[in-house]
Amino acid sequence: MTGLLAEVSRLEEQLAKLGPEATKERVSLLNRLAYGLLVSEQWDRVQTLATEAANLAHAIEDGPGEGMALGMIAFVQYVRSDLKPALANCMQALRLATGDAVVDAQIRVVLGMVQWTLGNFDEALRHIERGLPVLRELEDRTTQAFAVSAKGGILHSLGQYDLAVACHQDALELFRAAGLDVGVGRALSGLGSAYQAVGLMSAAMECHQDSLAIAEKTGHSMGLSRALTDLGQVYESQDKLQEAIECHERALAIREHEKYLQSQTTNLFHLGSIHQKLGATDRALDYLKRGLKIAEEIGARPKESDFHHLLSGMYENSGDLEQALHHYKAYEKIKAELFSDQAMLRNKAIELESQLEIHRLRNVELAQLLDELQATQAELLNREKMASLGSLVAVLAHEINSPLGVIQSSSDLTLRCADKLGGESNSKAAIDVLRTNARLISDASQRIGKLVTSLKGFAYLDRAEFGEIDVVQSLEHTLALLEPEFRERVIVERDYAPIPHLNAYGAELNQVFMHLLRNAAQAIEGPGTVRLNTKTDDQTIRISVTDSGRGITQAQRDAIFNPAFNREGSRVRASLSLFGCLNTARKHGGDIEVYSIPGQGATFTVILPRSLENAPEPMRAA
């Protein structure tokens, strides 16, 4: 219980810090806080929080969030015996929660309790059993325990007492494991009633007394009234009628104060029955008529049936056959209606399940379409990378061929000089040629070596996909590969401030730098300048690429990161370079900013979080 109170306090603080804007985060916090307050019976606060969550979720089209909120509103209505609105809210919540198994399961627990109170035991059991597997998989012990406890109560109502005992024992263990005293008291109460039904009176009395002690300790009014009611029934079965009356009167006073109408009918029924046994007919009739009136107001049909049946017997015994017949007819009518309602509910349930299945299949279809879209996106991005790589390889092939030609020519010259030295006594001229030739070979080899080193650094060959990178070194590797494209036209200026090493996907970030630098060069018509700048602050690292090109208009900036398609003759080509750059930056928890004045160039700034300095694992897309 202490842990639950601490969680509620933490959620209160988070909610206070969060702005009033309609966001999924606020909806989630409101729902979690309302759920946490259910145990402490703060019904007005729960309803206020859940209503706000439902309104916000509806505004931002957060179906599961709205469904969860409506489920909690329905629970408060259930506690307050507003059963028809509770049922309507549960059904609406189920429709909204389609596709979210967890929210669906939690709503079904509430719906099962409502149907149980309405006397629709088969429907109640069906909903509880639909939700329980999800709750078990989720390891939500608290909600699972309440669901198992409710299942035990429903089985009790169906006369399956042995199964009810097993359910209440399971619920008791779950509540104890969750450290929830209120739940332990509830499970003991259900277990005691089940023991009583199978004739284990001493075990029943022990459970009810333990439940009463817990309720008195925690100050939980619902638990206290329940334990007193259960004890009253045990005393009544033992013919300890005065003790039974005292328990029921205490429970009734609590329930009248808290306005638990449904629960009041139980005490009024038993008080009427006990006073009938004592021969206090007028007193008995008063209790029973009060109880019948409440049952009719809240639509608790099984309770109405019980009251009519008992009243019919009382009037028959007193000789008032007209009243006896009136109540007996009402009793038989309700029985028939309940049977008819059960059949109608089963049909409605089948219809609802069909609708929910249609929604589920639609969601599955949408999920498949999303998977196909993501696969297509990945394929397009890969094609873009391959196209970029093809262009780079073509330039590199030219660059490597030039020094290779020098090496081959120089090698041939070296051989001829060697032959000449072998046949001439004056070899000074030949030696000078060999020295010059050796320098040419050395220079050409260094050019090839530099290109290979830069290419390996750019592609992160022989290195882990995710690991420590030096951003400045990555920029230099990329510039070395692009140098043939920049040569004699684009001047590169560097302004590197010291920045820390990062843990990142090095090859993917190099692709970002490659695209931004190449785009910068292509934006320049004729000679121009590309300036590289790095800087850092407490939170971020910023890598900027500025060009002196034609700039970007506002309309172009608004769509610059969108995938584009260009027609080239009879073919359509996807242009995804900046789209891919933004995705890579966001994969690392960063972003890309664009600043430009048309005619005065543009600046693209890659922003990465400093937290990547110590990132122990690969980042994941948000």
Structure in words:
With 622 residues, the chain is an alpha+beta fold. It has helices at 2-17, 24-38, 43-59, 63-79, 83-96, 101-117, 121-138, 141-157, 161-178, 181-197, 201-218, 221-237, 241-258, 261-277, 281-298, 301-318, 321-423, 428-459, 471-486, 506-522, 554-558, 577-587, and strands spanning 466-469, 490-496, 502-505, 528-536, 540-547, 564-568, 571-575, 591-596, 602-609. Among the domains are: 1-118, Tetratricopeptide repeat domain (Serine Threonine Protein Phosphatase 5, Tetratricopeptide repeat, Alpha Horseshoe), CATH 1.25.40.10; 139-214, Alpha Horseshoe (Serine Threonine Protein Phosphatase 5, Tetratricopeptide repeat), CATH 1.25.40; 365-448; 460-614, Histidine kinase-like ATPase, C-terminal domain (Heat Shock Protein 90). A hairpin with a 5-residue loop joins β8 (591-596) and β9 (602-609). α12 packs antiparallel against α13 (241-258). The two termini are 35 Å apart. 38% of the residues are buried.
Write the layout of secondary structure elements.
Layout (H helix, E strand, L loop, with lengths): L1 H16 L6 H15 L4 H17 L3 H17 L3 H14 L4 H17 L3 H18 L2 H17 L3 H18 L2 H17 L3 H18 L2 H17 L3 H18 L2 H17 L3 H18 L2 H18 L2 H103 L4 H32 L6 E4 L1 H16 L3 E7 L5 E4 H17 L5 E9 L3 E8 L6 H5 L5 E5 L2 E5 L1 H11 L3 E6 L5 E8 L13
Parallel strand pairs: 2-4
Antiparallel strand pairs: 1-3, 4-5, 5-9, 6-7, 8-9
Helix pairs in contact: 1-2, 2-3, 2-4, 3-4, 4-5, 4-6, 5-6, 6-7, 6-8, 7-8, 8-9, 8-10, 9-10, 10-11, 10-12, 11-12, 12-13, 12-14, 13-14, 14-15, 14-16, 15-16, 16-17, 17-18, 17-19, 18-19, 19-20, 20-22
